């Protein structure tokens, strides 16, 4: 497994960590879809967001039409078949 090497001046207290990691299949958090479990997860997420914002973090909103991949120029395949 690769480990993160901190940059100069960076300490482990500055990097945010998640208390729980879900593995996906078979996890109690992901397999329980009851309303109470969803409310608990929402409350935990709201607490984490509030702590992040209280610590000086920012949330940037991205416009819906913005994508990470710019449109590509269409390629021409005219004459690409062998004779």
Main features:
about 80 residues, mainly alpha, about 30% helix, elongated
Strand runs, count: 0
- Low-confidence spans: 10-15
Described by strand count, sense and barrel closure, the largest sheet is: none
The DSSP helix count reads: 2
Oligomer: single chain
Could you state the order of secondary-structure elements as H and E? HH
Description:
With 83 residues, the protein is mainly α. It has 2 helices and no strands. It has helices at 28-31, 35-54. It is elongated.
TL;DR?
By secondary structure, the chain is mainly alpha-helical.
Secondary structure layout:
Blueprint: H1 28-31, H2 35-54
């Amino acid at each position: 497994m690769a480990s993160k090497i901190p940059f100069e001046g960076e300490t482990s207290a500055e990097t945010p960590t998640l208390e729980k990691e879900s593995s996906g299949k078979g996890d109690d958090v992901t397999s329980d879809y009851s309303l109470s479990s969803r409310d608990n997860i929402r409350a935990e997420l709201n607490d984490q967001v509030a702590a992040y914002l209280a610590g000086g973090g920012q949330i940037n909103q991205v416009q819906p039409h913005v994508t990470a991949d710019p449109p590509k120029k269409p390629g021409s395949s005219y004459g690409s078949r062998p004779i």
